[in-house]
Amino acid sequence: MKYLVICISTFLFCTFTSSNGAPSVSTLSACLTKQGVRNFTASQSTSFSAVLDFSVQNLRFTEAGVGHPALIVLPTTTQEVQKAWTCIRQGGWASRVRCGGHSYEGLSYTSSAPFVIIDLMNMHKITVDARGRTVWVEAGARTGELYSAVAAASSNTLGLSAGTCATIGMSGHIMGGGYGMLSRKYGVAADSVLEAQVITANGTLINRVSTADPDLFWALRGGGGGAWGIVTAWKLKLVSVPSTLTTFNVWRTGKQALTDLVFKWQNVAPQAPPELFLSLYMAGINTGGSADVGASFYGQYWGSIEETLALFNKIYPELALTASNCKQGNWIQAVANIAGVSGPSALVDRQQSSRNYFKAKSDYVSTPLTKVALAGAFDVLMKNTKGWIIFEPYGGVMSQISSSAIAFPHRAGRLFMVQYQAVWQDDTNSPDSELIGWLRGLYSYMSPFVTYTPSRTTYVNYIDLDLGDSVTAGKSYFGSNFARLVKIKARFDPTNVFNQPQSVPVSM
Ligand SMILES: Cc1cc2nc3c(=O)[nH]c(=O)nc-3n(C[C@H](O)[C@H](O)[C@H](O)COP(=O)(O)OP(=O)(O)OC[C@H]3O[C@@H](n4cnc5c(N)ncnc54)[C@H](O)[C@@H]3O)c2cc1C
Ligand SMILES: *[C@@H]1O[C@H](CO)[C@@H](O)[C@H](O)[C@H]1NC(C)=O
Ligand SMILES: *[C@@H]1O[C@H](CO)[C@@H](O)[C@H](O)[C@H]1NC(C)=O
Questions:
Q1: Residue 131 and residue 129: Cα distance in Å, rounded?
Q2: Cis omega before residue 501 (within 30°)?
Q3: Which residues line the pocket of ligand 1, CB cutoff 6 A?
Q4: Domains and CATH numbers, the chain
Q5: Which residues does 273 contact at the CB level (< 8 Å), separation at least 6?
Q6: What angle do CA 364, 312, 343 make, to 5 degrees?
Q7: Shortest-distance atom of ligand 2 to CA 50
Q8: Which pTM was predicted?
Q9: How confident is residue 431, by pLDDT bands cut at 50, 70 and 90?
Q10: How large is the average pLDDT for residues 234-261?
Q11: What is the mean pLDDT of residues 325-349?
Q12: pLDDT at residue 326, as a whole number
């Protein structure tokens, strides 16, 4: 495809119709209108920036030089997605599908080639069958609104295992796995998928992927977003949640004390009963002009505050958790506490109140880090107060599910997942490159201590363009499942119509 239309003015948009197949916005608009797809906005429209911005979670991709779409279409039904897709394909456009826009690298709303976004935000209907313990959820729904609907429809008896932040889009999340507070008990969000509906490259809707194409169904559950057609709805299995949970958060400081505490954490959190989820956030801090480390030990336990304290007293007395660090409530209250929102009613807010510029990287650890290794990581953290490391425990049921059960591969043997983040508000004081360089240095420091299968093992939902092209990155994200994913991709989408820079390729 040649793109012969060149925009020479930033004010005039090219509405050039050409006969050689170069993408034209006016042709696309006309097609959408003719097909009865009413809600779309082109880049010269006054409503365009607000629609584009609504689901931009990483402000790094609002900066100059980032490729924006020529048009955003906001379908309300599966049929409209199909019609929009047909117009987009006929017009020769590249495309991106956007659900919650939480891609760490902005891959649902940026591209270097002229492109169109299919934004699913208007498709978020949730239909709970509490008796059957299932839910049908349209592909544009977010975690928080789904959690709320499930809790409300089941009188707080059912829940769902997925991520901790309330604004994550369910589709991108499931397609990368989806890890959260219930994962040691019930697995990742992708483990709970019972059915999916998908639109393929030629515009066909597959209504029941699980039986129509079991390989594709396998790939959808953890094989990464942006490679496998357009998912329009998911059917998920719901899980029992207790009537009383305790969430806790305790802050400790001091490099020496934390070296000991975190060393011990590695033997506590991954081995604990699956009803306990004990995460760890570690950051460089500045106390009275001198650099140090602070850490938050946070999570939840299925039980009262008293039962939580009794458990910690037995397995982790060094943490000295007290009742004042704890809050007791039902599951949806726990979800709101962990998400850091004001209360359960705020879980339906589809946009996060504060957004940042950030860059992140991930790892897995299978052998506990030595105290020397930990102290070295703290030294790197202490050089910067705009970055942190998060450890999230694995173990529990995660170790019992086969690593080839679904495309998401990270199972037995992983003690915990590591996430490194550099986060900032504006780029005036420290340029992006400085913070990103620091983050890469931290990742490089950690290289001797982490898991390789055989590539350095990473989590596709913490997508990281530093990992390289789709083959190199794919080996890192999917390990031993990568070869099967490539085969499925080659059969399902041989011309790689559905792609982003690190989507599963058609050959290795
Ligand atoms: C603040 C924040 C908190 C997070 N917390 C967690 C957490 O607790 N646990 C965890 O596991 N992860 C977490 N993540 C990571 C998150 O799971 C991934 O970023 C996820 O891919 C986001 O999904 P999305 O739909 O919001 O993103 P999008 O940017 O909309 O999509 C991500 C990718 O999926 C594709 N895609 C989206 N919808 C569809 C569809 N319907 N059909 C086909 N392709 C589609 C997109 O094209 C893109 O390639 C967090 C991310 C952020 C920013
Ligand atoms: C299109 O969808 C957006 C997002 O929901 C909404 O704000 C807007 O009002 C809709 N426009 C039309 C014309 O329906
Ligand atoms: C469209 O693609 C699907 C799945 O790849 C295939 O089963 C179907 O036969 C194709 N239909 C047409 C009309 O080409």
A1: 6
A2: no
A3: 57, 96-104, 107-108, 120, 139, 163-165, 168-169, 171-173, 175-180, 225-226, 230-231, 461, 500
A4: 12-119 (3.30.43.10), 126-241+485-492 (3.30.465.10), 245-466 (3.40.462.20)
A5: 311, 396
A6: 80
A7: 7
A8: 0.95
A9: confident
A10: 98
A11: 97
A12: 98
